[in-house]
Design brief:
four-stranded antiparallel beta sheet; mainly beta
Length: 120
Amino acid sequence: QVQVVESGGGLVQPGGSLRLSCAVSGRDVSIYTMGWYRQAPGKQRELVAAITSGGNTNYEESVKGRFTIARNIPKNTVYLQMNSLKPEDTAIYYCNAKRVLVSSETVDFWGQGTQVTVSS
């Protein structure tokens, strides 16, 4: 059974930084595309950043240059370093592990989410 657990959220002032962690258990993180999503009140969940099994990364336009996704394979953990935070970054941040099987079936696992609040 794969489990995904986020941590590291909190309250930070505009311009500040936070680092979110996503610990994966049950399978190696390197076989998944790992994504960080966020959902603000009244809005749809959106993909913020992702890292593929091959190590390629992509970012939502509004976070490019401010957020960095990285993984530590020995620790089976994925991180989201968030710098220059803005009030509009306020949301619940979710970690997702996704994999397409040989059968073309997609399997994915979600964490419970961690709240990030950017406010003065």
